[in-house]
## 1
Amino acid sequence: MKLKFALLGLALIHVLVLGAGFLAPYDPAEQNRDFPFAPPMALHLVDTQGHFHLRPFAYAQIYHPESSAAVPYEIDRSRMIPVHFFVKLAAEGGMGQSGEWRLFGVAPPHRLFLLGTDDFGRDQFSRLLYGGRVSLFAGLLATALSLALGLVLGGLAGFYASLPDHLIMGASELFMALPWIYLLFAVRAFLPLHLGAQESFFLLVGLIGLTGWARPSRLVRGVVLSARHRDYVLAARGFGASDFYLLRRHILPEALGVLLTQAALLIPQYILAEVTLSFLGLGVSEPAPSWGNMLADMQKLYVLESYWWMFAAGVALIPVFLLYHLLADALQQSP
Amino acid sequence: MDSLLHVQNLTVRYGADGQRPKSALCDVDFELAGDEALGLLGESGSGKTTLALALLGLLPPGGSVERGAIWFRGTNLVAAGPRVLRKIQGAEISLVHQEPALALNPVMRVADQVIEVLRAHQHLTGQQARAKSLELLAEVGFAPESGITDAFPHQLSGGQRQRVVIAQAIACRPALIVADEPTTALDTAAQREILVLLRDLHHRMKLALILISHDPAVLAAAVQRILVMYAGRIVEDGPAAQLLQNPSHPYTRGLLRCGLPVIPGSAQARRFDCVPGEPPDLAALSPGCAFASRCPERMEVCGVCAPAETRLAQAQRVWCFKYE
C-alpha cells in the first residue's frame, strides 16, 4: 500500500517534469521584461457577473513600474484572458521551437503566469517543470553512479577480503570523513567557472556520484561478506564456477534489497546536493533552470520579503522528499 | 593397478596465525579404481570432510596441503592451478554436500541450478541446457510433468533436494562423485532412497564413488570398500563386508559396537556401548598412535611411535601394533 502510493506519487512527479516540453506553456528561458516579479495568476470559471464559463480564464494584470508597492501589479477584472488547450507555441525567441504543441496557453500578447515570474519576467511554472528535470534526474543519475561504484568496490572488498578489503574500506573511511559539500566546492571551484548547461549538469552528477560511493560500498561489502560463505556459494564453487560468476549469480543479488533501500535514501540526498550547489551558483548555470538556481533569487532580502511565489521550487521539493522517504520505508519493511 | 585416483601421503593442516596448527589429515594414502565405490567411516572430526574438500581443491581458508599429492588421471590436483581445478571441479569430480537445504540457492528454480552446472563446463544454448537439465532431473527420479523442475528448493522435501544436488553432481558425467554424508540430514526413508539412487548411478554410469558417513550401516548398503579414519589418519582399510564383520583395529571394533539398539529390551540393548573418551586434540597429538589414549588394548609401544601399515589377508590393511 505504502509502496504503491510512493511509487505512484513519484511516477507522477517524474512524468510531470519529463513532460515539461508539453505541459509548460513557455520556454524556461523566455524573458518578459514588462512583467518582472509578476504574482501568480489565478484561473477562474465564474466571472464578476456570476456567469459560468466552461473555458477557464484569468484576469489580466497591469504593471505599474512607478508604484512604490512591493508588488506593483493590479488585477484588471474587466479583461478576461481565456485559456486555450492544445495550442501551438508561437515562434518568439528563446529555445522553444515554433510549432511545438503545448497543453495550454493564452493568445499573445497576453501572458499566463500560473506561478508568477522572476525578475526577468520568466514564467516560474515553466521553469519549475524544466528545472525539475535537472534536479530530479541529477539525483537519480548520481545515485545510479554511486550505487554502481559501491556495488563493484564493495563486492570486490567483501569477496576477496584481505588486501583489497583493507584498501577499499580504508578509502571509503576517508571519503566518509571528508565533509562532502566542501569537497564539492573545492572541486567545482577548480574547474572553469562558466560551463554549458549540459556540461555542468554532467559534471555535477559525476561529482556527487563519485563522492558518494563509500556508504553503499560498505553496505554491499557487509552483505557479500556474509553471503560468500553460504553453502550454496561453496557448492557452486565446487562445480567449477568462476569468481565472477559466483559474485554475479549468487552473491550480489542478495545485496539488491539493501541497494534499493539505499537508493531511495540517496536520491533525495543527492537532489538536495544539486539544489544546494546550484543555489550557491556552483551548479547548473543560468539561463537553464534548476530548482537550485531558481531558489538562488531568495538570497536577496527583498525577494524573500515580497515575492512568496519564488519559494515554488522549495515547496516542490517537499513532496519529492516525503515520497522518497516513504518509498525507503516501504522497501525496508517489504519482505 | 590402473587407478583413477591416487592419494599419496596427503597431509593437511589448519592453522590460524599464531595458533598451533592442527593436523587435519596425516599421511593419507589410498588408491581408487575407476569403477569402485569407497566408503569413508569415522567420527566427527576424523578428517573425512577435509579429505573430500581436499580432493576438490576446496580447502577452506587457513587449510593447506603440507605434503603429499592427489593424482587424478595423471594430474596432481595439489599442484594444479585454479584454472585447471575449475575444469575438473564439477566436470570430472563432483561433490554432494551434507546439507541439501543449504547447498541450493533458495531463490533459484531447481532446473536453473542444474543448468548452471552444465553451463559452467559446456557451451550449450538455452534450449539445449534446459532439455539436458530435464533429462538429468528425470534420471534422479523427477518426471518433467511433476512440476518439481520449476519449483524452488523450499518447496521440496529433504530427500527431493538431495536428489537435485545429485542431479547437479552427475550433470557433466563426472568420473568421480564425492558424497559427503549425503544422508545425514535426511529421515530414514529418504536415506534409503538416496543410497539406492547413488548405488544405482554408480552401477549405471560406471563412475567411482566416495561415500562419507559416520554410520556403518549406510556404508554397508552402498560401498564395496571402506576406509576407517581416526584423527586424520587411516586406521583400517578393507572390503566392506569383511571389515564390517571382522574388524581388526580396536577403533573400528569400538565404532561398530556403537550402533543404537533397534529393539528395546533385547540383549544388545542392555548396555550402551561406546568408544570411551574423546577424540584427541589435533593441535597436540602425541608421537604415538593417535588412538592410544582411548584404546582398550593399549600396549607400551603405542605411546612411543606411530604404527605402520600392516597388510592382512584379502586386501585388508590396518595400522595397529597388534598386527605387526
## 2
Amino acid sequence: MRRLMLFLPVVLAVILGAILYNGIGKDPSHLDSALVGRQVPDFHLPLLQQPDKMVGPEQLKGKTVLLNVWATWCPTCEMEYPYLMQLAKQGVYIVGVDYKDDPAKAKQWIEQRGNPYAYVIQDNKGTLGFDLGVYGAPETFLIDPKGIVRYRQVGALDSQAWKNKIKPLIDKIGQGG
Amino acid sequence: MLPEFGHFALILALALALMQVVVPLVGTYTGQSRLMAFARPLAAGQFVFVIFSFLVLMQSFLTDDFSVRYVAENSSALLPWYFKIGAVWGGHEGSLLLWVTILSVWTLAVAIFSRRLPQEFVARVLSVMGMISVGFLLFILLTSNPFTRFLPNSPTHGVDLNPLLQDIGLISHPPMLYMGYVGFSVAFAFAIAALMGGKLDTAWARWSRPWTTVAWAFLSCGIALGSWWAYAELGWGGWWFWDPVENASFMPWLAGTALMHTLAVTEKRGAFKSWTVLLAILTFAMSLVGTFLVRSGVLTSVHAFAASPERGKFILALLGIAVVGSLVLYAFRAPVVRSRATYEGIFSREIMLLLNNVFLLVALLLVLLGTIFPLILEGMNWGKISVGKPFFNIVFPPIVVAVAILLGLGIFSRWKRTETRHITHRIVWPAIGAIVSGVVLCEVYGAFRVWPFIGCAIAIWIVLTTARDLWEKSGHSQGRASGLRRLTRSYWGMVFGHLGLAMVILGVTIVSNYGVAHDVRMGEGDSHMINDLKFVFTGVEHVQGPNYSAEAAIFHVYRDGKPIAVLYPEKRKYTVTGQVMTEAAIDAGLFRDLYVALGEPLEKDVWAVRLQYKPMVRWIWFGAMVMAIGGALAISDRRYRIRSRRTVETDLAGGKEGVSAKPGEVSA
C-alpha cells in the first residue's frame, strides 16, 4: 500500500502534462482576431504615386486584396520585399500601405527594388495603421471582395504563411466561402 | 564557414553526450571500471565542443554576420559590442544554446569536483546529466538551430535587438538565472543516481547539499537581477509582476529552498529520505516546466520568445520523459521503510523543517496554479482568463507570514527533541521587539495599517530571533570574539540566508505599502510635490545615442529648498526598428529611490510624467544578494574543505557524525 502511494507523483505529473499539452499551439494573445471578420476601417488618404488622388475603403472592394503595411525604416520589410515581388509576378493583387514614412524615400525604394503593388496608399501619419491595429511593420491583411478582413499576418510574409494560411483562404474566398 | 563549424561542433557534442549516457552506464551494470572511467573525459569533451559552438555564435554577432538568420533577427551593426554579446542569448535559439552551455559547465564541474566519490556513483551521475544534455542538444539541432543561414539573399543589416533587452540587466540576468535553473540538474542527477544504485543513504544527501546550495544562490541572484532589470527598464517602477515567466523562475526557487532544508535533515538525521529524493526531482522538474512555459507560447508574457507548437511539443516530450521516467523510478526504488531516526514533540528541528517544506510547497502549488490557471480554464472550455496579480497578492502574503514565524521558532529548535519551554522562553523578547518595531516602522513611513505592520513585524522577528541565537551560540569562555570565530561557515550561511529573507520581506512591505506614484501633466517650469520632495521640470534637450536618438527631460528635485538630485528621463527612438522606448531616470538610495519616467508628449513642451517615490525598494535586491552570500558561505564550510582530503571510505560511513554535532554546527 505504501508502495502504491509512491506512484501518486507520477499520476499528478501526467495530469499536469495533459494540461500543458492542451495549451500548445493555441495563441494566448488572440492577436489576429481583433479585426478579422470585420469591415476595413474607414480612411481617406492619397496615393503615393499620385498624391492628388484620394482613395477610401471602397477602392479595396470587388477583389481579393493583400494589404501590405510597410515602411522604408523597417528592415524586416526589406527582407520581405523579394517575396512580395514573387507573389506579384504570380498575379496576386497586392496593395501597399506606406506607414509613417517619408514619401520621397518610399518612391525611391520602389524605383530601386521594383513595384509589387497595384497601388500604394500613403499613410505618413499612421492613421490607417492605427485603425487597423498595426503595431509594427510589416503586417499584411487579407481582404475579401466585400471589404472584410479575413486574416492578419504580423511580421514578414513568407512562403510558409502564404502556403499554410493565406493561399487556402484565398481559394476558399474564390469558391464563395 | 565558421557558423557551419559551430553547427558541426554541436552535432559532435551530441555524439559525445550519447556516449556519456551509454558507456558509463554499461560500465556500472557490468562492473567494468574501465568503462565507467570514460564518464569524465567524455564530459570534458562535450564541454569543449559546446563552448566552441557558443563562442562561434558570439563571434557571428560581434562580426555582424547577418547571413546567420538568428544574428539578423537579434542584432544590428549599430548595436554596441556589449549588447551584441548580450544579444547572443536575446532570442530563443541562442538562449537555448546558453542553457546547454551552462549544463556542460555544470557537468564539467561535477566531473572535476567528484574525485572523492565512488566511481560507480559518479558514472551514474554523469550519465544522467548526459541524458539531459542529449535531450536539449536534440531540441536545438532539430527545432531551434541558431546557425541557420539566410541564403542566398542575406540581408544587409539586422533587425536590431529588442530595445527592452538593451540593458546591462540582459547581459547578466539570463546567465545567472540559468546557472541556477540548470544547476538543479546536478541535485537531480545525484538523486537519480542514488535511486539507480538503490543506495539512498545519508552520504548521498551530504554530496548533493553543496551543489544544491550553490545552484540556489545563483538562482536567487538571477531572480533579483531580473526584478531589478524590470524595475529599471520597463519604465513604470514595478519590480515583480507575477508574470508567467517570473513565476517560472520562482517555482524552482521555492522547491530548491525546500530541498536545501530537507537535505539537512536527511544528512544529519537520516530522516525523510524518500521525501528529499522526491523534492530533488521536483525542483529540476520545475526548472523544466519553466523552460516549457517560456518557450512553448502557451501563456502570454512580457518575455516573448518566438514560440511554435513544434517546439512546445518537443520540450513537453522532454519534460515528460525526464519527469515521468524519474518518478516511475522513484515509485519503484524509493525506500518505504520508516527511517530509523526518531524524533518527537512538535518543536523538534525535524518537524520544524518538515513544516517549512509544507509551507514552501503550498506556496509553490499556489504559484503553479495561478500560472497555469488560464490553461486549466481553457481545457475545461471556460474561456480565457488569467488570474494575475490580485490572486497572488491575496494568497501569497499569508504563506510568507507563516514561513517567517516558523523560521523564528525553528532557529531555536534542536534535533530529535526540543522542550517546549526551551523555545517559549527564548521568543518572548524577540516577539515583543518585533511588534514594537513594526508599529514604529509603520509610523515612520506613514499611517499604521494591518498588513504593513505584519510585514515589518515578521521581518524584524526574523532579525531578532537570528540575533538572539547568534548571541547564545557565540558565548565562549574566552570571550565573545573567540566565540564568534568558532561558529562554522555553514552556521553563518544560515544567518545570512535568513537575514536576506528578512531584508526582502521588509523591502517588499515598505515599498508596496508606502511607495507613492503620481501621474501628472507637466510643462517647462512646472513643479510637483511628493511628500516633502519638490520635483521641478526644468526643460528638454536632444540626446544622440549610438543606435537611438532621444528627448531627455531635466528634473531638479529639492527638499526644503535644498537640491538633492537631478534626473534625466528619456524618450528614445531606436533608429533601426523605429521603436519608441521610455528610459526612466532613477536616483538610487539605500532608503529610497526617486523614479521619473516620461510618458507621451501631450502638446508642445507639455508631457505626461510619472513621478515616483519608492522607499526601501533596493532592500529587495540587496536581500537576495545577502541570501546568495549565505549560500556561498555555507558551501565554503570547513567540513567540505576537510572532506576533500579524506578518503571515500570514511565518507561513506559519514552521516553519523552529524548527529553529535556541536551546538554551533547547525546547518543552513
## 3
Amino acid sequence: MSAELFSVFYQFADVFAFLILSAAGLAIVFGMMGVINMAHGEFIMCGAYVTVGLVNLGVPLPIAQILAALTAGIIGMIVEYLVVRRFYKRPLDSLLATWGLSLIVTQSMLLIVGSAVRGIGTPEGSFAIGGYTFSTYRLVLFGCAVAVLAGLYIIFMKTRFGVIARATMQNAAMAKALGARTGRIYSISFGIGTALAGLCGALYAPTMTLIPTMGATFVVESFVTVVIGGANVLLGTAPAAVFLAMIRMALNASYGQIIGQIGMLFAVILIIRVLPEGLSSVLVRRGR
Amino acid sequence: MYSGRLVGMALLGAMLGTAAIGAAQAAEPPLKVGLLEDVSGDLAFMGMPKLHGSQLAVEEINKSGGILGRQIELIHLDPQGDNARYQEFGRRLLNRDKVDVLIGGITSASREALRPIVDRTTTPYFYTNQYEGGVCDASMISMGAVPEQQFSTLIPWMVQKFGKKVYVIAADYNFGQISAEWNRKIMKDLGGEVVGEEFIPLGVSQFAQTIQNIQKAKPDWLLTINVGAAQDSFFEQAAAANLNLPMGSSIKIMLGFEHKRFKPPALNNMHATANWFEEIDTPEANDFKKRWHAKFPDELYINDMGYNAYNALYMYKALVEKAKSTKLEDMRKVIATGDACIDAPEGKVCIDPKSQHTSHRMRLISVGPKHEVTVEKDYGTIQPYWLGEIGCDLTKKNDKDQYTPSHLPSKS
C-alpha cells in the first residue's frame, strides 16, 4: 500500500518538476515581461548541449549544469540587447522575431553539431519500494523545481531588485521617472528567464536524447503552465503546475500517455474559458 | 488535299527520324532520381544516413558508367518530417521535375501520405525502410525488412529465451499500431500473453509513469517500438530507474543506433532481427563500410535505412538494365520473372514478384552491457512471403492497399 502511495507521489513530483522547470524561465520572460519568446525551447536546448559538452570535457555534472545555466543567461542578455529590446512595445512582432531566431538556431546547431549527440547517462542511483524501482535523479529534479520556485519568490518579492523589477514591468515610464534604470532591469530579468530555461535543459540533459529540436518537447507544456497561471506569475505558476500535474498524472496512470496529454490540454481550455485571467486571479482575490 | 496531308506526314516522319538520330548522337540526358529524406527535424539523425547512402550509390554508379549509359542526377528535398511537405515535394518531383524514379520516406505515415500521389503517375517508387508490412501496390517496391522477416523470427526467440509475458511500448501511429497487432497475433499463436500495451504520442519524452506501469504488469520482456529522438529517452530513464528487463525491437540498434547514442548500459539486453547492422563482419560488408566511411568520415553509424537506400539505387539499376527501359511496366515484367536480384553487402537479395518486397538475410543480434553487439542466430535468407500467402499477387492484380493481420484481402 505504501508503495502505491509513494508511487503516486513520485509520479506527481515527476510531472510537477517537468512543468515547473520548463515554465519557470518563460514565466518571467512571457508572464512578467510580456515577450512571447518562441525561442524558449532553444535556450533549453542550449543548456542541455553546454552541459553535455562540459561533462565530455571532464567537468563534474553539477558544475557543468550551473555553468550551462549561466551560459544560457548570458546569451539571453545578448539576445535581449540585440533583438528583443526593440520589440517591447510590439509583442506580436517579438513573436515573429524570436520564432525566426529559434529556426536559425536549430538549423545552425544541426549543421554545426550534427543530428545526434551521444548522451552522458543519468547519474547512478535507484531505490526500490515494494515492487517498484525508482530513479533517485528524478527526485533531485523535483527538489530543483521547488528550489527554483523558492528562489524566484525570494528574488522578486524580498529583494530591492525584485521590487524595482516588478515596478518596471507594471509601469516602466513611472519607474524610470523615479530613477530606476529600466533598461538594465529588463536586460537582467530576461537573463534570469533564459538562465532558468538553460537550467531546465541542463537538468534534463542526462535523461534525454540530445537533438537540435529537443526544446520543442518542453515548449507546449511551458506556455500552457504560464498561461493558466495567469497575470500574477509568481503566485500563479506553482498552483498551475500542481493542478496540471495532478490531472496529467491521474490520466497517465489510468489511461496512458495519449489520454494524459489530451486531458491536460482539455483542462487548459476549460480554465482559460472559465478564468480568462488564469488561476492567480482567484488566488489573489482571496488573498485580499 | 489528300496528297497535301500525305506530304505533311512524310515531312513529319522525316523530321522525327532526324530528331531521333540527333538524340542518339548527343549525350543521353541524365536519369532523374527524386529523393525525399528528412535531414532536419526529429528524425534527422536517421535520415542523414539515408541521404548519404543514396549519394554514395549515385557516385559509384556514375563513376562506373551510369545506368544504360546515362548518368544519374540526384534531386534531394528535405521534408523535415512533415507529411504535408512530403506530399507537396512528392508532387513537385513527380509532376514538375518529372523524375524517372522516386525514392524515400522515413515513417510509415509519410509513405502512406506519398503513395496515393505516386499511384496517380506511372513513376516507380522505392520505399527503403523496414516497416510494418502489408503494402500491396504495383507502384511501390519495398527494400526493407517486413514482419515475417523481423517479428516471426524475433518474438518466438524472445518467448523461448525470456518467457511468455510481453509488454509493448509503441509509437502511436500506423507503424506502432500495426506492429503491435503483429505482436498480438504472433504471441497468440505461441500461447503467450500481452500483459500491457502502451501507445505513446510522437514527441513525448517523459516515461516515469510508463516505467511504473511496466513494473506493475510484471512482464518477462519488453517490445520497444517507440520512434524518434524524444521517445528514445525511454531507454535512459528506464535504465536510471533500474528497470532491467530484456527488450526486443524491430527498429532499435540497426536503425536508430541507440547503442551508439546512449551511454552504456542503457541498451543492455536489447535484441533485434536485422538484415543489416554496421557490426556485420563479412568481406562484402567490410568493403562497403570502408567505402562509406571514406566518403563520410563523420558518420556515427551506418544504419539499415542508409544501407537499404544504397541498395535501392543498385536495384533500380539492375531493373532498368534488365528491362532496357525506365518504364515501370517494363521493370515490373523483370520483377515478374523472379529474377530481379542484386549482390548486396548482406548477400544476394531478390524482389518477390507477388508483393514487390525484398528477400533478406536475417540475423538476430543482442546488445551487451558495454553496448557490444553479438549475433545470436543466423536465419539465412527469408522471403517476404506473407502478402503472397494472403492473396496479394501484383502480377495479376494491383490492390493499392495495405493489409494487416486484421485487414485481409476480401475473397473474390
## 4
Amino acid sequence: MIELDRRTFIKGAGAGGASCALATLLPGSLAALEQKPLQGMGKEVASICEMCSTRCPISARVVDGKNVFIQGNSAAKSFGGKVCARGGAGHSLLYDPQRIVKPLRRVGERGEGKWEEISWQEAYKTIAHKLNDIKQQHGPEAVAFSSKSGSLSGHLFHLGKAFGSPNTFTHASTCPGGYVIAAKAMFGTKVKRDLSNSKYIINFGHNLYEGINMSETRGLMKAQMSKGAKLVVFEPRFSIVADKADEWFAIRPGTDVTVALALCHVLIYDNLYDQAFIEHHVEGFDAFAKEVKAYTPEWAEGISDVPAKDIRRIAHEFAAKAPHAVVDFGHRATFTPEEFEMRRALFAANVLIGNIERKGGLYLGKKAKTYNKFAGDKVAPGLGKPGVEGMPKPAAKRIDQVDEQYAMMWSSGGIYQTILDATLKAQPYQLRAWVMSRTNPMQTMTDRALVVETLKKLDFVVSCDVYISETAAYADIILPESTYLERDEEIADKSGKSPAYYVRQRVVETIGDTKPSWQIFKELGHEMGLGQYFPWENMESLQLLQLDRDMARFNEIKQKGYVSYGKPLMLREPAMVAAFVKQYPNAKPTDDDGTYASAMSFKTPSGKIELSSDKVEKMAAGRGVIKYREVKLKQDNELYFIQGKVAVHTNGATHNVPMLANLMSDNGVWIHPVTAGRLGINSGDKIRLTSSVGSEEGTALVTPGIRQDTVFAYMGFGSKNKELARATGKGVHCGNLLPNATAPVCGMNIHTTGITLAKI
Amino acid sequence: MSKRYVMVHDENRCIGCQACSVACRSENGTPEGVTRLQVRVEGPFGDAPHLHFKYNRVSCQQCENAPCVTVCPTGAAYVGEDGLVSIKEDKCVGCMYCVAACPYKVRFINPETKAADKCNFCKDTRLARGEQPACVTVCPTDALTFGDANDPSSEVAKLINTKATYQEKTHLGTKPRVYRIPTKRGGIQS
C-alpha cells in the first residue's frame, strides 16, 4: 500500500529540488556551509542506530567520502547484521542541507519562522539567564524538561534535577507506556517476548513488519517461516503483519480487551490453564476467574465483531501449544481509554498458560547482577551508573503528581501531556518554561492546537534538535545536536536472556557547529552555575567509570560495538538450565525438576505475578481486578480514526530526511470501498477529515484492507511549519485530529477518535 | 563451469520495508529521482477477509537474453564474462533505446553520469570485494538469496530446486535471472 513507482520518485525529486533552493535561505542550516567530503573515523565502525527509538546495533562504513553504508552489527545475533530503510538512510540525515548546524535565536513571533544564527556561548548565556530568572521568581519546578529517551534524556534530566525541577518527561505516555505500566502492575517490571521460539502467536495489531524492531521482526519471521508457528492477527486494517498472518480478524477499534478477556474465559472455564503454575507463582487468580466468568466469546463477539466460535477455537489452539505460545502484548498505544485493562488482559492470557520463563513465551531480562548470581561467578561485568553526590532534592511535586492512580507512571517517563494543563490552566501549578531535546510533541501528543497554545503561552522555550522540527519551530533558542553518526555515548545495557552491552560511537567527524547532547547540557550546566554537578571531563571518562576503569573490557566493547556474555537462560526451561549448570560449576543448585522455577521472583508486593492487585486497587478504586468497561470512542455518525507506523518513517522524526521523504511523503487515508461509495469518494480524491478538535485535508486511498466504519492514516505526516520543507503540508496531520485525553492508571495519551469524512 | 548469478526473492518473507532500496542507493550512490531497486507493495487482492498483498521486486532481471543488449547501437550495454548484463558508461550515448526496450522498465538515464544505469548485482562494489549485494546484506527478513546457480551446493541452487518459483514475463523469451517464490496467499503452494 506504499505507492512507490518511478513516477512518484521523479515527482518527489522535483519537489525536493525546489525545497533545497528554499532551504539555502535558512540560517544555520547545513546548506549554508561548504560541502566537504565526509571524514570517516575508521574503516568500519560499530555503533547504535538512532533513526527510531529501538536503537539497533549497527556497523557503518564511509563510501567515497560521500555516503555511509550502514548495516546491522553481526555481533548481535538476533539482529542478524540487518538494518531497516530508516537505519540505512542515516547518512541522508547526516548531510541533509536542511539540517541545523548552528545555534539559532528566534527573531520574529513564536512560530513565525524568523531566525538568526548565534554562537554557542550566546545561546548558553541566554538560556542560563532566562532559566535562573524563572527559578528565582517562581521556583525551579516552573521549568519542564523533556527528551527522547537514551543517553540524551539522561543528560538533560540530570541538568533538570541539578536545577531543582522534578518535571522531567519522556515520550512514554504518547507511545509505549501502556504495556510498561501494565507489566509493572503484574510482574513488577518490564517483560520481554521470545517470539522466535514461539509455536503460536496471537497478535493484537503489533505490526512488527512495519514498526520494525529488528530483533523482534526477525524473531517473528523466523517463528513463522522456519518453525511453522501460526500467527493470528486482530487488527482493524489489513496491515503487513495481517497479510503475513495465518488468520486475520478485522476487529472493531478499541475492543481488543473483549477478545483478550474472552480468551482468558475459555482458558479458565474450559480448564485449559496451567493450574500448577498459577498455584505457585500467581496471586489474585480467583478474583480474576470470577470476573471473567461473564466474558464469554459470545459476549466478545457482540462488541468486537470477532466470531465467538473463532475465539473459542483460537483459545484451544493456543493452549495446545502451551507453554511455547504467546499473546503479543503490543507496543505503541493507545487504542482506548481502557488501555491499562487491555494490556493487562493480554498479559493475563500468557500467565494462564504458564509461558513465563519458557521458550516462545515471556521472560524477564537477565542483567549482569541477576545472571552472575545464578552462575555463582562473575560471568559478565557490571555496568556502573556514575552518580553525583549531593544532588538537590526537588521541593515541589511533579505536575503529573495530582492523582495517585498514575503513581506507576511518575517514574516511567511521566504523563507528558500534563505540560499542557500546567501551562494553560496552572494545574496543579503554573509552568513557565520548557526545555526539550529531540522530542516532537506537536506530532506525537494529541490536539496540536493545544500544544501550539501551550508553546505560545510559555515565557521561554528551548529545543535541542537536528532539524527545526514542528515543535522546535516554536522555540526561542534552538541548539543543534550532532546526529548519532557524529556522537559518542555511554555504554548501554542490551541484556536479553543473558547480559549484553553495546555502545554508540562516532562514525564520521562532526559536520558544522554541532555538539553531542552530553556536552551541550554539561556546558549549559556550567553556564547556569551548576558546574559542580558535572564533574566528568568527557564521554570517555564516563564510559571508563561505567566499566570500573577496566581497560580490557572497555577496548573490547569499543572494538566490537556489541558484546554479550554467557549462555541464554530462561529459568523454567529445563534444557537451558541444564546447559547453564553444566557451563558454570558454581551455579545455583536447581529445583528437583531441573529448573530455577522456585528462584523466580517478582518485584510486586506479594513477590508473585499479580493477576489481580491490591496495590492497583488502592491506587485506583475498582481497578484491582481486570474488568471490562464500556467506552465511547466516536459518535454514531462518525468513523473511527486510527493510526499506525510505516516501515520507512519514524513517527515524529524522519519525514524530512531526504531519502525517506523521497520514498514516502504523503499518507493516503485508507477508506473502505463501501464507505467511499456512500460518500462519492474515489482513490486520489481530495478529502476533508473533521474531528471534535480539528480538521485536515488529505488524499483518499480506497481499499478493502480496512473496516467499513474505520479510516486509517500513517502517523507523522502533514507538518505545518515551513522549515521542514520536504514534509510540510503533505498529508494528514494525525495529532491535529485527536482530542487530548488521558487513560486511567497508565496515563496514556489516547490515539483513537471519531471523524467525519467529506469529498472536497 | 562459468558462473550463473541469480537472485531469489521470497515473497513470503518480504515485508516491503524498502531497506533494500535504501541500501542499494547508499552503496551505489544512486542520485535522487531515479532508482535501481524498489519493492512495490501491490494490492490488496482478493475478497476480505481473504486478502493478500503482492511484494513485487522491481529491478534489472539480469536477462540471459537481454533486449537492452540487442538494441544498444554502441555496445555500451553488454554481457560481461561474469554473465551479468552491464553498462560501459563511456560508450553510452544516452539514446534511451535500452530504456524503451526493457520489458521490465528498470533502466534509466543517470542524471549525473548521463549514461544508462540499472542494477548490476553490485558487481563493481560489493561483489568485487567478495560481499553479497547491498540489498541481500541488509534485508531484515532474509527474503533475498544471491549466488551462483551453477554451483549445486549454493543456497540459490537449493532454493530453485526445492521451491516453486516463477519469473516475470518469461513468454518474451528473456530468461530473467530474478526468481520469485510466490506468496502462499497467491494461490501457488511451494
